[in-house]
Amino acid sequence: MAVLGLDWKGFVVALALGVGVYVYGGLGELLTLISFLFVSLYITSLGYVYKARIGTYDYERGWK
User: What does the H/E/C string look like for 1-64?
Assistant: First the structure.
């Protein structure tokens, strides 16, 4: 199960980091972090589309 492009362990770590950023940095810093997450997910999806179009998309993770 993936949440926002992350597996459950990644989601738990991201949630903990997000809470820490909110507590120590405030709402502005948290919104910056969240916007970076969405921008990076979008850019990654563009990379997948491009790789699929040129025929080099790997369907599995290469490092596992």
Answer: CCECCECHHHHHHHHHHHHHHHHHHCHHHHHHHHHHHHHHHHHHHHHHHHHHHHCCCCCCCCCC
